[in-house]
Amino acid sequence: MPIEMPIGPALPALVVDRSSPVPLYFQLAQHLERAIDQGQLPPDTMLANEIQLAGQLGLSRPTVRRAMQYLVDKGLLVRRRGVGTRVVQPRVRRPLQLTSLHDDLLAGGRLPRTRVLSNVVEPAKPDIAQVLALPSGTPVISLVRLRSADGRPIARLTNHLLGDLPDARSLTTQALEQHGLYALLRAAGVVLHAAHQSIGARPATLAEARLLDETKGAALLTMSRLTFDERGRAVEYGTHVYVASRYSFELSLLNG
Amino acid sequence: MPIEMPIGPALPALVVDRSSPVPLYFQLAQHLERAIDQGQLPPDTMLANEIQLAGQLGLSRPTVRRAMQYLVDKGLLVRRRGVGTRVVQPRVRRPLQLTSLHDDLLAGGRLPRTRVLSNVVEPAKPDIAQVLALPSGTPVISLVRLRSADGRPIARLTNHLLGDLPDARSLTTQALEQHGLYALLRAAGVVLHAAHQSIGARPATLAEARLLDETKGAALLTMSRLTFDERGRAVEYGTHVYVASRYSFELSLLNG
DNA sequence: TAGTGGTCTAGACCACCGA
DNA sequence: CGGTGGTCTAGACCACTAA
Questions:
Q1: Is A90 an interface residue toward B (CB < 8 Å)?
Q2: Are the C-beta atoms of A16 and A59 separated by less than 8 Å?
Q3: How far is the CA of B82 from the C1' of C19 (A)?
Q4: Strand C atom within 7 Å of B21 CB
Q5: Residues 6+ positions from A116 with CB-CB distance below 8 Å
Q6: Are B92 and B44 in contact (CB under 8 A)?
């Protein structure tokens, strides 16, 4: 059986800051998450029960429950009625925001470089207008970028964005060559809430092969993504191709 | 502005069943979800506020809040402090369980067929043992299936499962030709909790081309998936190849 | 049987939004 | 300013698990 000592006092004392604007449940959740990350709560550790924890921390039981539920959703804890709460083994976290190739490469310790091949505002072509649910001819930002890592091309990224975004100005070619598109959008206050993705594959055309430093017919991964803001409005549509020999998609899934 | 009439009385009356084992918050959530699905609460509709709703339904405010939070997580509602709760536009739902090719094909209105090419229990080869975190040589179930839809091959599915699953018996060749693997596992009480996936692409070998009714060098999608149960134990490892000309992965993502 | 998490209640105060 | 959702509390009862 995966039994371990119950825990509570062994944790570094948490002093909740009731004057902070950060919610108490979130302070507790961060505290536990840090303890798990740093190995103070190794996998399979049983946590003290809610009542004890609440008493030790000077919080109410619902507040403690909320912190725990947050970590369960994130994949760090498992709870079973009649049994208790345990720290989970391998660590499959629900990603907190939409993945970005730029950030993924950075996180993987690779050095991403971006060359902007095209950056214009133009009337939406009929197919793009339809996907974004716009009247045909509405101005949209059209973007083509070549993304490389460690000196070799990885992907050609094609994006179409709503022209009336509050931040259209900030998408300069220079900014785009130094940051990921999603990071720029977030920094400008655009909240990306949900997305539809479709991932496929096909052989490279001659032009693609040349651009991507591959041979004609090499396998390319294709990904198209339609992104929505919190109002459910389509904000961005991207159609990208990736060099399959140098890139693959890594995903983590959690059951609800 | 996306304004609509406040709602509440216009809903078909909900009678909560306090004797049911189904939690009250969930009864309410299902009721609202059905109303949204059936168009009684069209997109952009403002809901009545929590206090009113609680009063009308004879529930407490926390219970109503919990139902709403559930629907927010599912992508059906959007809430803003000081403003209210609105039904969301397009409908990007968080999938409720790990996707299964068999079920995806069924849901897409296609007719999946499965041929079991191999179904044996054997000592784990070193690479498989390492991925599943088992001692080398531990018995594992090895499975190879050919999945077709509408009469044409779609994918070759290769799986390795822990040999000591409670349901190893139920994975008969006959059962596997009629149901998806995940459905069989769930039916046998195995709770799949999380997974790591990696999606890539490569050209088909000659043998793969023959099996999959394609030409050598055709683009194949590859997907490997390591699945964990609720204890965080690796339970299943699959390495699959899909005919890219007839299949693509569709995903929905929600920000946390 | 004792202990756990799951659900539910009736209050309270606050931060934020729009008029 | 009034109204909204966000947070927090201190109880209560229940279903499930394990010994």
A1: yes
A2: yes
A3: 12
A4: no
A5: A143, A144, A145, A173, A176, A177
A6: no
Measure B81 CA to C15 C1' (Å).
8
- Total residues found in chain B within this entry: 256
Nucleotide lying nearest to A64, CA to C1' measure: D8
Show pLDDT as tens, one digit a residue, over chain B (256 residues).
433 444 444 555 666 788 888 899 999 999 998 888 888 888 888 898 899 888 888 899 999 999 999 888 877 888 888 888 888 765 455 554 567 788 778 777 788 999 999 999 999 998 888 888 788 888 999 999 999 998 899 999 999 998 876 666 778 899 999 988 988 887 777 777 777 788 899 999 999 999 999 999 999 999 988 887 766 678 889 999 999 999 988 777 665 4
Helix (H) or strand (E) holding A66: helix A61-74
Q: 3-class DSSP state for residue A152?
A: strand
Pairing label, strands A77-80, A84-87: antiparallel
Token duo for residue A111: 């050095």
Could you tell me the distance in Å between the CA of residue B31 and the C1' of nucleotide D6? 24
State the best of A249, A250, A252 to mutate against chain B, taking most chain B CBs within 10 Å. Answer: A249
- In order of their start, the domains of chain B are 6-87 (1.10.10.10), 101-243 (3.40.1410.10)
Model's pTM, two decimal places? 0.73
